[in-house]
Amino acid sequence: MTIVGFDEAGRGPLAGPVTAAAVILPPDFPFEILNDSKKLSEKKRLAAEVVIKEKALWGLSFVDHKKIDEINILRASLLAMKLAFDDLLKKNAGLDLNGLNGIADGTFVPPELPFECQAVVKADAKYPEVMAASILAKTARDRFMLEADKKYPGYGYAKHKGYPTAAHKEACRKLGPSPLQRMSFAPELFL
Known about the structure:
This protein is of the alpha/beta class. The chain is built from six helices and five strands. Strands 3-2-1-4-5 form a five-stranded mixed beta sheet, sandwiched between helices. A hairpin with an 8-residue loop joins strand 1 and strand 2.
């Protein structure tokens, strides 16, 4: 049985996309470099990202703030996971879907997958494939928010990545919503 690990990054922020990854690891992968992305330093995450992208089958996706506001963050997260698997398939067109089994971090599974998938709470601390997916999702989203910081100075995206810090909330009160703002999150900031 081959495991496809799924995880997302960016469910809690007030701005920016939710990002997801789907990963299949080969048997000879250096598993010791993996952990839940939140437990790794940025330096170790970035080093692991390079190895994952080099040795594993992987896909990534972003679901933007507008779609999050339209369908809610849970649906957007699950959609991002499904789109990440679609990206993995596109990059590996000859992949045999027989014998695949998915594990998604959390309590829900992505929709419309062509194989069984189970949701496991804290899977990003238990399954190497999910750990790898969490690393790819987090590094991709962080990189996106660093670029957003250059485009929209004043919001502090390089520092807090869109999470609801006091500094972010204060910037929103002073400057109004950024073009990446999730308007369904903390609407009281913009009344």
